[in-house]
Amino acid sequence: MTNTAKNLFEPYRMGNITLSNRLVMNPMTRCRADATGTPQDPMAEYYGQRATAGLIVTEGIAPSANGKGYARIPGLWSDAQVQAWKPVVNAVHAKGGKIFAQLMHCGRVSHAANMAADAKIVAPSAVALAGQMYTDSLGMQDYPVPQAMTEADIAQAKAEIVQAAKNAIAAGFDGVELHGANGYLLEQFLSPTTNLRTDAWGGSVEKRIKFVVDVARETAAAIGGDKLGIRLSPYGTNSGMGAYPEVEETYLKLLPLLADAGLVYVHIVDHSAMGAPALPVAFKQAMRKAWPRTFFIGGSFDQASGQQAVNDGLVDLVGIGRAFLANPDLVQRLQTGKALNAPDMGSFFTPGAKGYTDYALAAA
User: Does the annotation mark 47 as catalytic?
Assistant: First the structure.
């Protein structure tokens, strides 16, 4: 099968799998796991409802106890968590969908009240994130100063991510997305704002990208590059990030190395529609040119702009977030021109079914 189709609703071949359409359900934190990071029953219903997306990328999943940042985010480091993900994956596969697990090591974006007692908050450098984060037990709390990672910590974090990727495949996921965006651990290594190191892991662009490249290579070696993608957010402002003089150089040097590692896709975050800085068009085009396989952008598309981006050759797939959150049948609604449900922002991160599995389907 060749990728000659340009319609958003026609199949697309990505590596060794065929997606039913070019629409991707973006990863969206929902905080419906239990306190131990174990997925709960409503999660299978939630993802199963949205299985008509060409590809689902899950919410961020902690690869380890050290990587867990937010309250009630799920994990993939224990056998109980692996077993609890199986019904989620099965619910998507039963409806013909494909689903990748997004592995999100939060690094400094965490608080002890959201973590196991023996976990520690680590980052490239001991630079605290300004502001506060929510905890179930203590309410809003200041971000703590993370521990600057030792060589042993770096080796441990890489090994944790690789093992979590293997766990994802054992749970039945079609693949894994490394979360290298939005201010979490991988991006903390990329940015000179958060990476103040002067050793082999920091200083020059080449040294700052080393951790991400190592993680990608080692994970691809463990599960196969055809089952591995990465999410990146150049110019992003989430969790204390921001542009820096060599931001474009950083990513244009990173992409060929990720391609050499065999990754099947690159997923770029563009949150300009929500107030983040716009990604320069020329830079988007340069990243597209630098990437030899599936390339997509998520965060600011509607149907018309997504179709145009595919037609222009800028992207192969179109990532959509909140519209999928509020419309389990989004693909059918877009195909038939039905009005969309509005998302209930007040229930984005709250426990239970409200604002999670109770969004109405369009009338036939």
Answer: no
